[in-house]
């Protein structure tokens, strides 16, 4: 699990809870913030709007389940990916491109394995780039659909909170003679706005940002693979490939990048000798 996401969500609700109990009524004021009609209007209305936007019910369910991606900790180490590419380039430099087929058997990443097999099959470099880029774009499109789901839901929450507020105000204004109804109607009016803001800023928008960050990391990782494989196919020096791929890293990560290319190249040259 992604501990930062979990802790962030917990602390957010703790902050809200702290704000409630520090009121005049203290812990006795907690029931004042629970109102089923407000929950029904805000949550039910926004969910129904998201169902309308979905292509179908299965897509709606899959988009909703994508929150699990935000909660999972998935390590995508770009420096390690570059090291793997350099290792492959040393194999190709020492034994030839056909030797990459055997190396591909130990690779778990389907995207990288697909690129290696295209190279082994002697596919034209431009065609390899087009095939890999097409798959990369398809992955990005699928991910952005999930990101858009949460971002749109984040906009629906406050909107339906405002709808609930208007309903509460209308009910209150129509029953001004009954003083006992003013309080409950005002509660609905205010709590729907609160619930809508919580839904948006506590869950939906942070989840959409988290998914976008993970998508950007994965796309960058795949771009590294594409550039690295094409460089291997072109027969470039492993040190040149490493310097090219380092451009994807931040300055700090570049400094931590080891001398694997130089060591691997030395081994390759030693084998050739």
From TrEMBL:
What cellular component terms from Gene Ontology apply here?
plasma membrane
Biased-composition ranges, Basic and acidic residues, are 248-257
Residue ranges of the MotA/TolQ/ExbB proton channel domain?
104-221
Keywords associated with the record = Cell membrane, Cell projection, Cilium, Flagellum, Membrane, Transmembrane, Transmembrane helix, Transport
How is it placed in the membrane, per its record?
Multi-pass membrane protein
Q: Which Pfam families match?
A: MotA_ExbB (PF01618)
Q: What is its main location?
A: membrane
The record's section on PROSITE patterns has:
MOTA
Q: List where the protein spans the membrane.
A: 6-28, 150-174, 186-205
Region described as Disordered: spans on this chain = 248-273
Q: Does the keyword Membrane apply?
A: yes
Subcellular compartments: Cell membrane
InterPro entries in alphabetical order? Flag_MotA_CS, MotA-like, MotA_ExbB_proton_chnl
Renumbered to this chain, the Low complexity biased-composition regions fall at 259-273
One of the GO biological process terms: bacterial-type flagellum-dependent swarming motility
| Record family assignment | Belongs to the MotA family.
Name by which UniProt lists this protein: Flagellar motor protein MotP
Source organism of the structure: Butyribacter intestini
